[in-house]
Amino acid sequence: MSPTSSQSKPYMALLPCSFLFLLMLCLANAQPSPGYYISAKHSPISFYSGYNTLWGPQHQTVSPDQSSVTIWLDKSSGSGFKSRQPYRNGYFAASIKLQAGYTAGVNTAFYLSNNEAHPGFHDEVDMEFLGTIPGKPYTLQTNVYVMGSGDGRIVGREMRFHLWFDPTVDFHNYAILWNPDEIVYFVDDIPIRQYLRKNDATYPRRPMWAYGTIWDASPWATENGKYKADYRYQPFVSRFTKFLIGGCSAFASPNCQPVPSSPTGYGLSNMQYMAMRWVQQNYLVYNYCTNSTKDHSLTPEC
Ligand SMILES: *[C@@H]1O[C@H](CO)[C@@H](O)[C@H](O)[C@H]1NC(C)=O
Q: Tell me, what DSSP letter sits at residue 284?
């Protein structure tokens, strides 16, 4: 063996090694399959069969075929829509595309609430897209409120995520499943958060309506209020399409069956659970349960 050939050996060995390493990195960061596509179990409905304009009608357009709605925020107003019916459980999804560029302070929300029926002690299940500044990613905030501020304290259960794609480029499916056992948030059918019913005090049980809104949340939305809505960049536009609703309206017969989160019925499948773990390991940026300055006496689920 010549000195040159022996020297080349470690170099030769490094090539396949680094290739394998890169391949493993890629695999580790690839979007996993949830194995079950809950959105495919439902057919898109027309906007007006599920929803009505709630506020800011002049800041909202429905496509002629009623498949899509565009809502926007400018200096004069935001806009919102609300489901025609209250639901006692359900699967609520929409494909949403967000605005690129400077969107700090802007909050695009898709959520369930009964705040109009129970002001001051309402329940709420939120997905909120928190606008951002160029070069920084959107944050998807999920939250669960139970009985609102009924005891004088508002107990938020925020979990915030970044996404594994740019939500301003394409429409993606975002969904809230709320059934008697659990709340599951899905992004493109991947569960990102599961909130189990552990007891009645920490679980929303009264009928809720579904909402979509765009509004100015400058005091807190972007880096805790550091960046505010800047109306030089108005209008701030969010697009919703492929509305899916499953489950039981508040007026449905008692035989109505809630939507299960997985093919097995109760709870997530192993594959869904693995996919959720991938999201939480890679994209979870805030979890209320691990915030040590928070008073956890009212969040025993932590
Ligand atoms: C942690 O909880 C405190 C008290 O509720 C809150 O003021 C603070 O904003 C939370 N931290 C983050 C990063 O959200």
A: E
Q: Which residue has the tokens 């869904």?
A: 272
The domain segmentation of the chain, as residue ranges, is: 35-291
Catalytic residue list contains 128:
yes
- Expressed in angstroms and rounded, the spacing between residue 148 Cα and the centre of ligand 1 is 17
Give the pLDDT confidence of 157-177 residue by residue, as tens digits.
999 999 999 999 999 999 999
Nearest CA to ligand 1 atom 5: 294
Going from the Cα of 142 to the center of ligand 1, the distance in angstroms, rounded, reads: 15
What separation in Å is there between the alpha carbon of 229 and the centre of ligand 1?
21
CATH tag for 35-291 (out of 1.10.357.10, 2.60.120.200, 1.20.1260.10, 3.90.1720.10): 2.60.120.200
Torsion, CA 160, CA 166, CA 172, CA 178, rounded to 10: 0
Interatomic CA distance for residues 188 and 38, integer angstroms: 9
In angstroms, rounded to a whole number, what is the distance separating the alpha carbons of residues 206 and 89?
9
* pLDDT, tens digit (0-9, with 9 covering 90-100), for 252-297: 999 999 999 998 878 999 999 999 999 999 999 999 999 999 888 8
Residue in 109, 90, 270, 253 with CA at minimum distance from that of residue 174:
109
Residue-level pLDDT at 5? 43
Q: How far is the CA of 291 from the centre of ligand 1 (A)?
A: 7
Pocket test for ligand 1, best of 294, 295, 297 (most atoms within 8 A of CB): 294
Measured distance CA(105)–CA(281) in Å, rounded: 27
What DSSP designation does 105 have? T
Strand boundaries in 131-219, DSSP class E: 139-145, 159-161, 172-178, 182-187, 190-196, 209-216
- Flag residues of the chain having pLDDT under 50: 1-10, 17
220 lines ligand 1 (CB under 6 A): no
Tell me if residue 124 is catalytic.
Answer: yes
Ligand 1 lined by 291 (C-beta under 6 Å): yes
